[in-house]
Design goal:
Elements lengths: L2 H15 L11 H13 L3 E13 L5 E13 L3 E8 L2 E8 L2 E6 L4 E6 L4 H12 L13 H4 L4 E10 L2 E9 L3 E8 L6 E8 L6 E10 L18 E2 L7
Parallel strand pairs: 6-12
Antiparallel strand pairs: 1-2, 1-11, 2-3, 3-4, 4-5, 5-6, 7-8, 8-9, 9-10, 10-11
Amino acid sequence: MKLYKRLLSATSITILLFGTSLVAADQTPKEILKKAFKYVQGMDKYAFKAVVIDHEKTEDGSMKEHRFDTSVKVERPGKFQINVKGPNRDRSNYLNNGVYTMIDHQFNYYGQIKADDTIDGTLDYIYEEYGIRSPLAQLLYSKMHERAKFSKSKNFGTMMVDGTECDYVAFSNGVRELHVWIATGSEPLIKAYSIIDRMEEDDYRINTSITWDVDAKISDSDFVFKAPKGAEKISVESSY
């Protein structure tokens, strides 16, 4: 069974458990998640690939899956490259020397924004000023553990995810649930997570599975945007 199918099954089961008094392991869910985020924060350079599956309800009532394949390279404090391919989407995002670039490869146009010198500052700026949400921002912020706010949490113990033993923890703020699988041991990398929106019909969810490249070769050239032949530069307007 594919990983995202297993995640869907697991989160369906834990919906029933979230309101119970089930007691699990010695670490609290917040401690486990904080450790994972701080581990990522501590890496100067890193790369990973992710498969993101979201679901759309069709006219006949069935759920249609949409798969997006994403690759990410990061160099702290102020560089990244993100590539996303999926249904009607083929885009790349760059941050380098305070300039944020977006290119749509299908239409061959791109836009650039003078942003912050840091990843955190840029992610905040492009969202607040332009309404742009960066793919997989949760794994880009340096202090994501300070941003995650939940009213309820639960530790469901451990389970195997693609051959890796993972702590399985879940969080809720009453509107959304976050289910996360984090590798146990000395490298607590997030292997997968699911976000369930309780405000949407049929509990709309997005499942994400992650493959880390711990030995990735990353160079300055990875973050330099070069406009393809014939690409057109367009203006990016503020959402205000």
